[in-house]
Design brief:
mainly alpha, globular, single chain, 296 residues
């Protein structure tokens, strides 16, 4: 087998996943504003329901790939994804945004730990160095001068484990399950569970303003149906550890677009943190880029 053919898809996959991180980061400030009118659970229910509807035509085309095993795997990673969103939302009520941001970002190091246990060996050195570098960057981006342990921090830690498990299992299932099927059923699971949560728990007043609909449509089409399809498809060609490090770029893109769209400025500490995250991604990618360039 030609080694270039083996490494080129991984680089393309990593760049596609970087686009996913960029899309999530770019819309962060839009979602943050939209949920002031529409609470998180109803927002998630409608967002993921719209995303599932947009995938229905593609799911019909790929209907021969729909089987019990594929559905079960989609439901499993959907539960993990929903768990991540819910524990993050609950934890944010009892801790600071900076603490939550850093703790959630710990999935960058949790994923390689999952992989190490599963494969019974340590990840490659560039992955570990990149993960540690990205974690240091997330700490600089997220933690304020007076880091304290709040009651919500352990809840947000569950969120980090949920997102890490989601990335890990997508990495395992992606080579086995059609990407459209895998994305569709995890999205449907989040929509249903969010809808049930909306009905079971009292919700603040819901205002469906034009801005809310803008946020719903944008996140449904780009950040959900397209993003999770790309993740399901592209993790066939890259590792779960690579994916976690690439997704660490999300807060960097969030800060960039917050500056571009709302004029929010990063502190010197934040700029240094962003540089560490980007350095971590480049370190993790170095071996792939070297192989692509030199064909070795």
């Amino acid at each position: 087998m030609n080694k270039n053919k083996k490494t080129i898809p991984q680089l393309v996959a990593d760049l596609s996943l970087l686009f996913v991180a960029l899309s999530w980061g770019a819309t962060f400030i839009i979602v943050k504003t939209a949920v002031e009118d529409l609470p998180p659970l109803p927002f998630l229910a409608i967002r993921f329901a719209l995303a599932f509807i947009t995938l229905l035509p593609f799911l019909y085309i790929q209907r021969e790939h729909v089987n019990e095993a594929a559905i079960i795997k989609g439901l499993l990673i959907g539960v993990l994804l929903f768990s991540g969103y819910v524990t993050q939302t609950i934890g944010l009520q009892y801790t600071t945004a900076s603490n939550a941001g850093f703790i959630t970002g710990l999935n960058v190091v949790i994923v390689p730990i999952f992989v190490a246990f599963y494969q019974k060996r340590f990840p490659h050195r560039p992955i570990m160095i990149g993960a540690l570098c990205a974690t240091a960057g997330l700490a600089l981006l997220s933690i304020g001068p007076n880091f304290t342990i709040n009651s919500g921090d352990p809840i947000v830690l569950l969120c980090a484990f949920s997102f890490a498990a989601h990335i890990f299992f997508v990495g395992r299932f992606a080579p086995e399950v059609n990407a459209t099927v895998l994305a569709s059923f995890q999205i449907l699971t989040v929509a249903l569970l969010s809808g049930v949560g909306t009905l079971l728990f009292p919700q603040p007043a819901m205002v469906f303003s034009p801005y809310v609909w803008f946020g719903l449509i944008l996140t449904a089409l780009v950040c959900t149906s397209l993003a999770f399809f790309l993740q399901s498809k592209m993790q066939q060609f890259t590792s779960a550890s690579h994916t976690a490090i690439i997704f660490a770029g999300e807060p960097v893109f969030a800060a960039l677009f917050a500056f571009l769209l709302a004029g929010e400025m990063l502190s010197n500490r934040g700029i240094l943190g962003a540089a560490f995250v980007l350095a971590g991604i480049l370190i993790a990618e170095f071996n792939t880029i070297r192989k692509l360039k030199w064909g070795t």
